[in-house]
Design brief:
Arc Repressor Mutant, subunit A, 2 strands, mainly alpha
Length: 89
């Protein structure tokens, strides 16, 4: 997955509603979060968020991205659990 870091970052912005809160949750600098969102919007060719004075509200595309990110996180967690069970851990 070529842009997983950017997807994960944008999903956190969608969850928290601000760049600062997403940066804190991910342990990233605010500029990095902004860059990830901008990069992903350029790759997708659409806006992920409506920006306003109190933060960020996901657009329809942003909500789609959040669903994809959440599903991917869930599927990876399932894969990790299966791997742990198969290794006897």
């Amino acid at each position: 997955m070529d842009k997983w870091n950017e997807i994960r970052t944008a999903a956190q912005v969608a969850r928290t509603g601000t760049i600062s809160a997403a940066a804190d949750a991910l342990g990233l600098h605010r500029a990095t979060v902004t860059r990830h969102v901008d990069t992903l919007e350029a790759v997708l060719g659409g806006k992920l968020f409506l920006r306003h004075a109190r933060g960020f509200t996901p657009t329809a595309l942003g909500l789609d991205l959040l669903r994809v990110a959440d599903a991917t996180d869930d599927q990876f967690g399932q894969l990790q659990r299966r791997a742990t069970q198969q290794s006897g851990g």
